[in-house]
């Protein structure tokens, strides 16, 4: 895929500035094929969406990019350099932050405490060293505001925020700690329409801040609203790869819904004889026909 040209005419690929690139990547668990020959590019200021049903391989793909699992074949490039990440810590050090659906937060702790969890600034020295609470409070408030999130009170326990707000805090946190690539695991899966809209706004804000975003979702409408590249996965293989200018929402939805498979099923249902105990005729054909 390296060196391909998009419909827009720009050169793409590791050599030309993709932050993260998967080229023909495969992953097997024993003899189970979780991913085979999957390619994906993530560019600064772009949103690459990965769409797929259950078991399509989305989690496996996240785990490879996040440094949890190693790929078995193909190339994984970070800023053009072939890489095999040894751990999630290494992924973070290389600028890849992953926000999982079940966010790792401490519900009873204040928003600001969760914002800095694991990276708390301290002040003073020696035995007088202590958490710099004022700085954490102020920074959290300012950073959330910068992303357009106006929280009434950063002292409230994060568990009192809505699911959408918590996703937004996690995105703002990744931006603040200098992520270059943000991987979002189904951030709107458990949310209603309005909250999904709020989260997608912050996904777009992260993109506008210059990050490259990988948005995993099974919702083509959400993907199409913000995405500029779409990779469709089906049972571990890539069933489609499109740039936004090369596919319509209707077509993306059709492909995601099963496309030709659904059409075939619909024809089969039309032809299928109705069993006699359900009112069909012994000779076959739908009930009510002669
Ligand atoms: P879902 O949306 O249901 O989580 P997914 O698209 O994330 O699905 P994966 O979890 O990546 O899909 O799974 C892809 C395939 O790999 C599935 O067939 C799954 O059973 C298999 N698989 C995933 N993880 C493992 C594992 N640790 N060991 C064995 N097989 C696995």
From TrEMBL:
Q: Which UniProt keywords apply?
A: ATP-binding, Nucleotide-binding
Q: Which Pfam families match?
A: ABC_tran
InterPro entries, alphabetized = AAA+_ATPase (IPR003593), ABC_carbohydrate_import_ATPase (IPR050107), ABC_transporter-like_ATP-bd (IPR003439), ABC_transporter-like_CS (IPR017871), P-loop_NTPase (IPR027417)
Q: Does the keyword Lipid biosynthesis apply?
A: no
Chain ranges of the ABC transporter domain: 20-260
Gene Ontology MF terms: ATP binding; ATP hydrolysis activity
Keyword Metal-binding belongs to the record: no
Q: What is this protein called?
A: Sugar ABC transporter ATP-binding protein
């Amino acid at each position: 895929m390296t060196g391909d040209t998009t419909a827009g005419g720009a050169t793409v690929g590791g050599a030309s500035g993709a932050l993260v690139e998967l080229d023909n990547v495969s992953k097997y668990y024993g003899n189970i094929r979780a991913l085979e020959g999957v390619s994906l590019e993530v560019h600064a200021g772009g949103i690459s969406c990965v769409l797929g049903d259950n078991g399509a391989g989305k989690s496996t793909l996240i785990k490879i990019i996040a440094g949890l699992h190693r790929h078995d074949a193909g190339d994984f490039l970070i800023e053009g350099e072939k890489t095999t990440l040894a751990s999630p810590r290494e992924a973070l050090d290389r600028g890849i932050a992953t926000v999982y659906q079940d966010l790792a937060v401490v519900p009873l702790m204040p928003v600001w405490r969760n914002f800095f969890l694991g990276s708390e600034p301290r002040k003073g020295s020696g035995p007088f060293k202590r958490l710099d609470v004022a700085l954490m409070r102020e920074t959290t408030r300012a950073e959330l505001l910068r992303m357009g999130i106006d929280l009434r009170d950063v002292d409230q326990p994060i568990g009192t925020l809505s699911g959408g707000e918590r996703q937004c805090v996690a995105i703002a946190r990744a931006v603040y700690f200098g992520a270059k690539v943000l991987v979002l695991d189904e951030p709107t899966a458990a949310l209603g329409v309005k909250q999904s809209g709020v989260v997608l706004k912050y996904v777009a804000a992260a993109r506008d801040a210059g990050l490259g975003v990988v948005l995993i979702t099974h919702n083509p409408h959400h993907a199409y609203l913000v995405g500029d590249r779409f990779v469709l996965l089906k049972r571990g293989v890539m069933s489609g790869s499109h740039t936004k200018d090369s596919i319509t929402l209707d077509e993306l939805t059709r492909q995601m819904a099963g496309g030709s498979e659904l059409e075939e099923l619909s024809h089969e249902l039309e032809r299928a004889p109705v069993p006699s105990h359900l009112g069909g005729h012994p000779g076959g054909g739908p009930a009510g026909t002669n």
